[in-house]
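TASK: fixed-backbone design
INPUT:
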């Protein structure tokens, strides 16, 4: 038996229920994990609310670290006692769970479990956005919205190390200082400034090469005005609502722009791609390129409070649930 945060019907944070949950025996290609740290991500709120439909009831969460306690048939690359982490496997908000062995990533020595749970989903998101969706090169200029968030703090440090000029937005003086301390050359308070106008000032009217936007509806339209001709708009989240483009000719009018809506599901469909992204991420943490910020922790039983804090923009950096 496991203790878990269960969503019995879609809705607000009040739908997160701390309950007993039957722990199944591991099947072929599966293992049982005793979880030690669980990451909190916006995708968890999308699934809970019904924006991303999931059949109920389900255990919430998509990212965690833990220790292998039992092996199913045919699992040969892991052993009991191994420390592993994962992202993209629904059911993370639990003390114990069954997980697909193929999607588990060994945690290297020198990286603790909380750090692994704090960075894997966010860090792999930053990896595919910076290295695959648009391969950031020295001398380019990027705009990153919500730069003080968990993904933002990882990505802006990494982008700076790649040689980019990094512009970051955030919603308070405290968050702006945090973003500046983690790689942003320029910071913009989107609650008090016209960020498109400021981007044009910073770039001398040229615009940025790429915008990375996990905020969504409230920032999308003005973000198009931040791009240089033939620049790329990367929309990878919907914290403020889902984006729609009713008139696609807006892209031609604003400079023959490109738009993409990527997801890690497709970038990491193959295990070798997942392991390569994780290798580079953990290496960047080990060599100091990425300094990890875990600024809030909540007991697993208080997942409702954690969701409220995240959705109310009361968090910075990564948030961890502790079983």
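OUTPUT:
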């Amino acid at each position: 038996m496991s203790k878990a945060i269960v969503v019995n019907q879609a809705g607000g944070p009040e739908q997160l229920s701390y309950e007993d949950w039957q722990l199944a025996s591991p099947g072929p290609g599966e293992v049982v994990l005793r979880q030690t740290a669980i990451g909190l991500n916006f995708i968890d709120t999308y699934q809970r609310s019904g924006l991303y439909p999931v059949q109920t009831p389900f255990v919430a969460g998509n990212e965690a670290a833990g220790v292998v306690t039992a092996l199913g048939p045919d699992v040969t690359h892991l052993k009991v006692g191994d420390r592993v982490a994962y992202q993209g496997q629904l059911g993370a908000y639990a003390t114990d769970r069954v997980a697909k062995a193929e999607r588990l990533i060994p945690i290297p020595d020198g990286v603790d479990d909380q750090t692994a749970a704090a960075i894997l989903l966010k860090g792999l998101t930053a990896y595919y956005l910076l290295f695959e969706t648009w391969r950031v090169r020295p001398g380019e200029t990027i705009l990153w919205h919500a730069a003080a968030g968990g993904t933002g703090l990882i990505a802006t440090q990494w982008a700076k190390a790649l040689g980019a000029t990094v512009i970051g937005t955030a919603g308070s003086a405290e968050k702006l200082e945090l973003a500046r301390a983690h790689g942003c050359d320029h910071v913009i308070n989107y609650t008090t400034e016209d960020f498109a106008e400021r981007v044009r000032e910073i770039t001398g009217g040229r615009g940025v090469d790429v915008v990375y936007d996990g905020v969504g509806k409230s920032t999308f339209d003005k973000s198009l005005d931040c791009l240089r001709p033939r620049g790329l708009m990367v929309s990878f989240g919907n914290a403020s609502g889902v984006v729609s483009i009713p008139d696609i000719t807006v892209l031609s009018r604003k400079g023959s722009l490109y738009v993409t809506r990527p997801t890690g599901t497709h970038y990491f469909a193959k295990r070798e791609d997942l392991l390569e992204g994780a290798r580079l991420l953990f290496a960047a943490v080990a060599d100091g390129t990425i300094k990890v910020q875990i600024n809030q922790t909540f007991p697993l039983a208080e997942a409702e409070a954690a969701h409220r804090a995240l959705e109310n923009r009361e968090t910075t950096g990564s948030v961890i649930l502790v079983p």
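COMMENT: Residues 61 and 92 are 4 Å apart (CA to CA).
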